[in-house]
Amino acid sequence: MAASLEARISAIVRKWFLTEPLLFSVAAKHSIIENPSLSIPARIGQLRLEYNPQFLEKCSEEELDACFTCEIYRALLGHPYARQPYNCKKKVLSLASDVSLSLLLDKEFIEKLPYELAGLSYLKYHASRIKNLQHPLGQKWDNSPELAFFQRNLHFDNSGFLIVQDDLSFEEWYRKILFLIEQTSIAGSESAGEGGQLSALQDADQAGELWEENQALAEEIKNQIKKAECDQGWGGIGANLALELRESADFSFDYRRALTRFRAKIVSANRHLTRMRPSRRYGFKAMGSRYERKANILIAVDVSGSITEESFSHFYRAINNFFFLGIIEKIDLIFFDVNLKNTSPIPFKGSASKIKLEQIKGRGGTSFQPAFDFFTARSSEYSGMIIFTDGEGNPPNITAGTSSVLWILDSRLAWEKSRRWIESLPGNTSTYLPF
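The structure assignment produced for this chain is given below.
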């Protein structure tokens, strides 16, 4: 007896657990629900993955897998849960999602889908009629930037796949398609009222019906993408899509912002109250203050065997360019692997900038404890500490009263692997060098 559609879908999701861990992690956050009222095979949103059994019962296992994989890809790209434009048109968001997906997915994958993406159907319709479109508000359409854009980008090869010249984001495709739907017409009539295009718009309207902003879920999905990158758990996801997912999950985190916050924190620690007697109106609640604009910091450099000369040079340049202001009065350097390489700190300026990594002996394993012990023993001398490392080592044992510590990892991958345990330490933050 043939297995039921529900059992076949469950089997696909269970298979993902072993072969596609990223897809499984997102699918596990959604309830897979049958919805016979749909006019489309499947849709995703509001923590639901709905499907119409009438569309999918006759599909092969390969087609069924591709159908659900496509919806999970939308969630991975953040389309159903991202922040939406004001008064947005959900059908246009859905169409933009179709176009973005079609440009990221391999042709072989798209051919497995048991249906045509509505966004491609919509654009194919306009591609054949682009010269007959009328510009809004009676403006001239010929030689307009809008016409030039659509002529440049609405091309389909012999197999019916979209070819574009401009590299547009999901949000940019939304604006372009919104223009086509709402602000252009053919021979003065509504362009949405003909044949396949009307069907595409109706399907897109239903596909985007569940879409609403969910920042918490979007962040959870981003964390799963970061985990996949660290664990190299991309499964069968193509290179183009994997690259897009990496970029979409980026923290947009700049090490200079982390250094700015670190500097502000250690300087603000030198605040002194100036009023010696209470205010008649506010008492001591509104006391004056001044800031001692000088601070000393300690920089601990990991010189274990896994640190390269190139990353060592990048770190020196980043610190040297950032702390040229007079706010930081003194910067001292210590070097460590399993123990300290110098018992007396080296001033950062002058000879320290000329130190070569190979000149420092004993490049063995890594222990962060000696650097923290040195810093803690001189807590009255330094306002904060910066650690440059690749993060490969056991977490140090530190006390809750430890001053500000900023970890600078030598790569994003190293930061992704270590940031959680680093930032669980009291008073510790982290960033990475994007070189």
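Interim note for the steering committee: The longest strand covers residues 328-336. Residues 187-193 have pLDDT under 50 and may be disordered.
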